[in-house]
Amino acid sequence: MTFLRECFIVFRRQLRMNLRNPAWVIIGLLQPIMYLFLFGPLLKPLVKQLGVANEYTFFVPGMLVQLGIFGAFFAGFGLIGEWREGVIEAERVTPASRTALLVGRLIRDMIQLLVQAVILVGLGYALGMAGSAKGIIFGVVLTLLVGGACAAASNALALTVKSEDVMAPIMNMLMMPVLLLSGILLPMTLGPKWLQNVSDWMPFKWVTDGVRTAFSGEFARDPMLYGTLWAAALFVAALWWGTSTFRKENA
């Protein structure tokens, strides 16, 4: 109970900060919406090759994963500001669990992602997306897992570098191959064999395939299994890294 209360206290403070300045939430949602309206129609000629009802049935799951990855990656920038203002120093003198300091922030990030995901899926339906209700719910859960993993990793990186000038180029360097090799925008089957082989080493590619398979309602297929395993593994690993970094920061 003490741990849950500590998580709630951290979460409540973080939520209040977001409500006072919702710019990051709005910006994070606008990017996938712009992709939805501007890039989605370009996939229409590929619908038959994709084997889906329409372009948005393929594209919306990818946009969900993009929202989970890239939106959460920016979580650490706010933490750098808190560290600079002495908030982290003030928290570390309390008896609060170091894990709770991270988990409270992750709950805020994942609730924010859930709201954005619901809006994105609603827009997808409005544009003609087809999908299984149970599959969509499971796909959103996978997105929350990978979003929590990215947020935890972002917080860990932030406390490691403690500088926006260092963190920004690192994030840009990571985002480009993730975006291109995960099949978020275009199916990797359209690329040459060597590029498909490279993308197979990208965990987010399996998560993207898993979310798309979930939306179709085909739970027994391999992409669902591999996507779920990778999402869970990334979340556990990032949670361990984030907690470890908070503990070092408070040593």
- Fraction in beta strands: under 5%
According to DSSP, the number of beta strands is 0
Q: What is the alpha-carbon Rg in Å?
A: 18 Å
Distance between the termini: 24 Å
Features:
single chain; 251 residues; mainly alpha; 12 helices; 79% helix; elongated
How would you describe what is shown here?
It is a single chain. Helices cover 79% and strands 0% of the residues. The chain has 251 residues and is an all-alpha fold. The chain has one domain. It is elongated, with a radius of gyration of 18 Å. The two termini are 24 Å apart.
Question: How do you describe this structure in short?
Answer:
The chain has 251 residues and is mostly helical.
Topology:
Layout: H1 2-20, H2 23-38, H3 47-50, H4 55-73, H5 75-84, H6 87-92, H7 98-126, H8 133-161, H9 164-181, H10 193-199, H11 203-216, H12 222-249
Helix pairs in contact: 1-7, 2-4, 2-7, 4-7, 4-8, 4-11, 5-8, 7-8, 7-12, 8-11, 8-12, 11-12
